[in-house]
UniProtKB/TrEMBL annotation:
The lineage of its organism: Eukaryota, Fungi, Dikarya, Ascomycota, Pezizomycotina. It is found in: Membrane. This is ATP-dependent permease. The keyword Transmembrane helix applies. The chain crosses the membrane at residues 303-328, 383-403, 490-512, 524-546.
Amino acid sequence: MRFYGPQNGSITIDGNHIQDIDTTWLRNNITFIQQHCTLFNETIYTNVALGCQEHERVTNAQVTECLEFAALQTTISDLADGHDTRVGSGGSTLSGGQKQRIAIARARLRNAPILILDEATSALDKLSRSSVMRAIRTWRRGRTTIIITHDLESIQTDDFVYVISAGRVVQQGRRGTLASLGVDPAAKDPRNLKRQSLSRAKATYSIGPTQPVAGLFHENSVEALTNTRNTRATWGVEPSTAIDNKPLPMPPSAIELSDRAIESRAHGTKAPLTTVAETSRTSMRAILIFGTFSMTTGYHQRVLFYSMAVLGIAAADALASFAMHHLLESVSQLWVDRLRNEAVRRILQQPKGWFDDITNRPSRLLASLDHNAEDIKTVVDRLAAQIVVVVAMMTTALLWSFLTCWKMTLVSLAASPILYAVTKSFQMISSHWERRTDAARAKISDILLETFSDIKTTRSLTLESYFHKKYSEAINQAFYVGNRRAMFGALFFGISDSAVTLFTSMIFWYGAYLVKHEEWPVKSILTVFALLLFCTASATAVVTYIPQTSAATGTADRLLRLAQMPVISHEGIGLLKLDRHDPSTLSGPIHFINQTFYYPSRPKVAALRRLNLTIPSGKCTAIVGASGSGKSTIAALILGLYPPSTDNLNLSDSPPSLTLSGRDIRTLDLATLRSLIAIVPQPPVLLPATVRENIIYGLKPDSELVSASSIEASARATGIHEFIQSLPQGYATLIGDGGLGISGGQAQRIVIARALIQDPKILILDEATSALDHESAEVIRRSIINLTRREGGKPTVIVVTHVEEMMSFANHVVALDKGRMVEEGSFQDLVDRKGKLWELLRLGGNPRTSAEEND
Ligand SMILES: Nc1ncnc2c1ncn2[C@@H]1O[C@H](COP(=O)(O)OP(=O)(O)OP(=O)(O)O)[C@@H](O)[C@H]1O
C-alpha cells in the first residue's frame, strides 16, 4: 500500500519497483481490509458505495449484491431503515462481525486486481466465515489475493503459503507440500510445527495457482491500468510526506476560534485603558468644554479646572474599569469552569444509550466543552461589561439632559422604540445566522475528524479526494452561510447607522428650533445635544457586539443545556457498594431471566429475545453464536452499560431480571461493580502512554495491585513480557497514538495484561485472541485455566468467541441464535448433541466434527 517506502531491498509488482509506481494508481488497484476496519459515520449504503471511485453512480442493486456477497443482506433488511441505516461514528452501532462484512462488501464493489485481507474475517463466526471465504475464493479465482491470518483452517492445500517469523520468511510453498514435509502450518498441535521457525509466526497465503504476483496482472497490465481514468499519466515517486516544523495552515473557522479565544483573554487587560480613553474623550470633555466656549471671561481657569476634573474622572474611571473587567473576567472564567464541570458531571452520569445518540457524538461534546466554552466567556466579560457601562452612562446622560432640557430629551426618546426594534430584529436575525454558521462549522470538524481518525483506511481506499471534496463542499457551504450572515449583518449596520444619522438630524433640527424660538438657552441645548449624541454612540456600540454575542449566546445555550440536562439514567440508582475484600462478593452465578433488549438507537430490532441464561461462578463460560447474535450485548448488560429490561412482555413468563450473585443488578452501585469486572473489548484500545501505564490503567496509584512484580506477572501471563523487554525503554516505552507502533496481537496481549492485573471477580474476554497466533492464544488460555483453578477467589470468566479452541477449553458453553439462548452445556456435550454449536463448527469445515458426523 506504500504507507511506508522500502528502506532496503526491493518490492516489485509486474517487474516494476513499487517506488516507481504512482501511489494513487497503486492504491486504486489494491484493496486492503484490516482486522479492525473503520466505517464512516454514514449510511450502510454510502459505506459500501465508497469502495467505488464513482460512488455517486453506485446503485442500490449493486450495494445489495455486495451485501449478499458478504452474507449481510438479510440482517440489513431487518433494520427499519435498511441500507439507509446510519452506522454511527466508526460503525459503533454494529457488531464486530457486521463491520467486517461491510468492509468485505465494500471490497467486492471495489473489485481491485489485488486484495489483501489482514485478519479480515477474524470477528466472524465459522459459519459466516466459511461462506464469506467461499464467496471470496470464487470471486478471486485467478487474481492476486493475500490473506494475512492466524486462522490456518481457512487455507486450502493448493494455496501458496509464506510463514513469517520475526520479519523473515521462514517457510514457503504450497500448504499441501509443507504438510507432506511434516510442517503443515495448519496443524493445530504445536508439536507438529517446526518450533524454532514457526513460533509466533504469521502465515501469508495467496489463493489459487501459485504464480509470482507479477504474473497475476496478465489481464490488467500496469501500462493498461495507468491509462485508466483514475490514474495519473506519469509515474512519480510520492513526494515526501514528512511534515516540516512550520505550523500547519488552519482552516478559517479554526483561526476564528483561536483568535476569539486570544482576543477574549487580551480584552481583560486592554479594556480599562480603552475605557479611559473612550469615556474621557467622548463624555465629560465634550460636555465641559462645550460649556467653556460660551464663557466670555475667566475661561482659562475654568478650562484648567475642568481639564483637571476630566483627568481625575479618567483616573477614577481607569480604576473602576480595571476593577470591573478584572472582576468580570474572573467571574466569567469561574462561571464557565463551573458550567463545564457540571456538564461533565452530568454527561458522565448519562447511560451508554445517550452516547450512542448521534447528536452526542464525541466531536460535538468536545466542541461544546472546550472551544465553545471560551466563546461563552464573551457573553459575560464583553457584553455584560458593555451593557453595564452603557446602561449606567445612558441613565446618567438621560437624567442630566432631562433636567437640562426636558423637551428635547422627550423628543429624542420618541425615537427609541424604532432604535429598539432595529436592534432587536438585528439580534434575532443574527442569532439565526449564527446557528446556521455554527452547524456549518460543526460539519467541517466532523469531516476532518472522520478523515484523520483512521488515515490508513482513508489512504487504502484512496478516499483523499472524496474527503477533500466533501471538506471543500462543507467549506463552501460555510462560506455561503457566512456570506449571507455578512449580508444581513451589513444591512442592519447600514440601517442602524442611517437611523443614528436621522436621529442626529432630528435633534439638531429640534434644538435649532428651540433656540430660534428662544425657548431654551444655547448652552443647555448644546449640553443636551452632546449628551444625546453620546448616548446614541454608546447604544450603537452595543449593536456592533450583537453578531459576536449571538454566537456566544448560541454556544452558551448548548453548554447550559448540558450543564442542566436531567440525569435520567440507571447509572446512579443502585446503592449497594461491593467490597473487593469480601470473599462472598460476586461469588455466585449470573442469571439472565427473560431478558429482551433493544438498543436505544435501534428501538425496533431486539438484540436479545427472552434470554434465559445462567453463567456459573468461578468457571469459564464461552458464549458462542453467529455474528450479530447478541454475544457482546450480554457483556454490555453485565457491565451495567444499559439497564436490563423489566417489562414483562409475556405474563406467563417469570418477571425479567438480571442478577449477579443473587442480587438484582439495579440495586448494585455500578462504579464498584465495574471495578470488579475486567473486560477485554474486541478492538484493543491502547492509550497514548507507556506500556506500564497502559497495563495499570484503571487502577488507583496507591492500589496494592500496582507493583513492578504484578505488572511483570500479568505481562508474562499474556506472553508479552519478552517483547516489552526488547523495546528500547522496556515498560517505559511510549505506545499508542504518537508512540511506538505495535501489532494488533501485541496490543491485544497488553490489553489482556491490563485485565489480568486488576484481579477481577468477573473477567470478560470479547474475541480477545482473534489477532493472536496459535501459540500466543495458547498462553492466554493457559493463564485463564490457571485463574479458574487457583485456590480461593476464582474469577468468573466469560469468553465471547468464534474460536473452537477457546470454546473447547471452557467449562460451560452457551450458544446463541438471533438473541436467544438455544443450547448450553459442556463443549463435548454440545458437539455430541449435534445442535447449533455442531452446526456452526461443522459448516465451518471443522475436520474433527466432520469426522464425528461420518462416524
Ligand atoms: N450500540 C448499538 N446500537 C444499536 N445496535 C447495536 C449496537 N451494538 C450492537 N448493535 C446490534 O445488536 C445486535 C447484536 O450485536 P452484538 O455486538 O451483541 O453481536 P455479537 O454477537 O457480539 O456479534 P459479533 O460476533 O459480530 O461481534 C447486532 O445486530 C448489532 O447490529
